[in-house]
Amino acid sequence: MTNPSKSWIADLPRDRLIGEFSVWSADPVHLADDLTRVDPYVDVLHIDVADGHFAPAMLFFPDLVAGVRKVSSRPIHVHLMVADDILLPQIEQFADAGSDLISIHLENEAVADAALDLLDRRGIAAGMVLKVETPVSLVEKYVARLDFLTLLGTAIGVKGQGLDERAGERLQQAKRLIDGCGATHRIVLAADGGIREHTVPLLRQSGAETVVLGSLAFNAPSLQDRMAWLHAL
User: Fold this and answer.
1) Which of 21, 61, 173, 177 could make an S-S bridge to 136, C-beta 3.0–4.6 Å?
2) Residue 35, SS3 per DSSP
3) How distant is the alpha carbon of residue 199 from its chain centre?
4) pLDDT, tens digit, for every residue of 115-129?
5) Are 137 and 130 in contact (CB under 8 A)?
6) Distance, CA of 58 to CA of 41 (rounded, Å)
7) Residue environment code for 126-162, b if the CB has 16+ CB neighbours within 10 A, otherwise e
């Protein structure tokens, strides 16, 4: 498969919600088939990586990213939920596997600057994610270096939770930081966690340009109808 163009982030839709699909919610036994099924609606593929320490889950590995790269030409966004001492080697491995965007956590602050420097050297788009309890203001010093800023609306690495009541307010605060950071490139604001039919309109109104779609997309009775609804918000 061909890789996305170098300008893929700038080229993402601006007049509707971006369709970011979480591979965590795909059928792991029939992964290639499931990715093919949803491909017409995907703008970005989202792959979570967790080490069982930084986040309670154990998710995914570089070989999976390399395999997805073979069957999809969609941009691959890797979300690293890993401890500080393995963050830089993980960036190298997932860069080698074919990632187009790698997001680290603000809570990896001890190595955050080194991680962003490494992504810059590797020519990989840089993202940053904030846990639901982390003050949004702390990301201000990094914002201008980012291509994606993702706010979690639920506890990290656990499926099926309700959206935190502060999620909308936090997105609005992040949007103000993006608008005021002076960057000349596009910085996409994303919401991840608690993505349900009744929460997506609030997240969109609060400034989210993309929501990370899990079961809302993969388990939709009609994916065409679900995405038409999403794009109309």
Assistant:
1) 173
2) helix
3) 17
4) 999 999 999 999 999
5) no
6) 27
7) bbbbbbbebebeebbebbebbbbbbbbbbebbeeeee
What pTM did the predictor assign?
A: 0.97
- Give 55's Cβ-side CA count (13 Å radius): 27
Q: Which domains does the chain have, with CATH numbers?
A: 17-232 (3.20.20.70)
Distance from C-alpha of 5 to C-alpha of 8, rounded to nearest angstrom? 5
Query: Is residue 161 very low, low, confident or very high in pLDDT (cuts 50, 70, 90)?
Result: confident
- Residue 137 token pair: 């203001």
Provide the residue count of the chain: 233
Helix axis angle for 62-71 and 84-97, nearest 10°, is: 20
Q: What's the pLDDT tens digit per position in 30-59?
A: 999 999 999 999 999 999 999 999 999 999
Other C-beta atoms lying within 10 Å of the C-beta of residue 19: 24
Nearest residue to 48 (alpha-carbon basis) of 19, 16, 29, 26: 26
How far is CA 188 from each of CA 70, 99, 198, rounded to the nearest angstrom?
26, 17, 22
Tell me, rounded to whole angstroms, the distance of Cα 198 from its chain centroid.
Answer: 20
Report in angstroms the alpha-carbon separations of 132 from 73, 91, 203.
Answer: 31, 23, 14
Mean pLDDT value across the chain: 96
User: What is the amino acid identity at position 119?
Assistant: L
CA distance linking residue 50 with residue 225, whole number of Å: 32
